[in-house]
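Journal club side-thread
Mid-discussion, someone asked how the predicted structure for our own chain would compare to the paper's figures. Pasting it here so we can look after the session.
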Amino acid sequence: MTDSVPASIDDFLHTSTPLAWARAIAADLPLLLNDHANCEKKAAATALSLTFRYGEDAALCERMSRLAREELRHYEQVMRVMRHRHIPHQTLGAGRYARSLRDAMRTDEPGRRVDTLIIGAYIEARSCERFALLAPLLDEELGRFYSGLLASEARHFEHYLAMARQHDPTSADLRIKEFGELEGQLAVSPDTRLRFHSGPPGHS
């Protein structure tokens, strides 16, 4: 992995993103930016949904509220980049990544909450790693933009991970390992839909 990725994330992720993925998506800026914008919206929606589902947990709600605001600011920043570059908005079909992670979630509590937080940690960690991988492959302006997002993604990863371990210390580490193996497979195995969190292009 690139040296720009924090050591905690480097250690957390089970696999490194293939360079084939980075080269493919860096060559298609409309796809990259449209799916990135979608990811920021989805991240904000996930944070807000946690405040509704677990409204009795004041600490979680306060942290998720701040995270949602930051994700929406990132969404607005991506949209400004798209307007500046005259890249139109596109509606993209969802890839397999988040769906496959959600399919592995437990439905009982506190398992559902812990699994949701662990998935959030992996999504933020993978985003941080991929921003770092993409930055040197893009033009200088866009590379700076992606480098500038690294710190916030790393911070979000740390918050999600800490909350998962806080809510169920007994099962959290086992579930982190299980989700890590699944997430790693999704990140590196060939994918039929190129997306920000997809595997490299190919046939799955």
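Post-session note: The radius of gyration is 16 Å.
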